[in-house]
């Protein structure tokens, strides 16, 4: 399989050479055919012999050139990869390269990185959340949103259960209070959704989380609170970074620009991560109701 991929990549890298070799091969075949036909006529035997020799030469040289090109290119790539690896592994070379790159970038870019912003996405991809939860181990996963549009898609029941019971992950989820009509109405006015849709969406999240809660063993590792405070950003946090989306007019946070904010940069905790983490912890501590799950239902209790 790997050899087939390698040959295909070589064909793409030098198409003119391979076309030339194919033409030479076809010319050789045609010349051999002509020589065999001409050999039946005694007047053309000498000419047919010459044509035959040229045809044989064309057919013979084609595979030789092909093998030579294949072996030479592979040898070059092999030797170059070893040489590059040797150079990179020299003492201090990584730091030198990092310094060169840093100096070549504008200062504003360095400021962005040093404060924790490492990437941006046009929207929140549920696959990204799913992949990170698959990888999570001994992690506290923090979610602050009005509601989570793709919750059951991103975190399937078996993935939820496996993360909590088998990989010691702890979920802290903060959602809007579906009973707080005043808080919901303020957000409704900025979007083309009804208050009823908001409430149904939040309850759908809570019903799904409740269905997972009933199946897990480590029930203390799945905690949900609700609030009615104004929030300007949605947050999904892992041990080493947050993904932050903005609540904008006529756009839910999931469909807005997402910023990835890393915890550590140059061996230190970044300022932006620190602020975002403090913001979440404050929202968590100030959330005035927690969701109490039982085997039959869920309810809200003052914290």
From TrEMBL:
The chain crosses the membrane at residues 20-38, 50-71. Keywords: Membrane, Transmembrane, Transmembrane helix. This is Uncharacterized protein. It comes from Kordia antarctica.
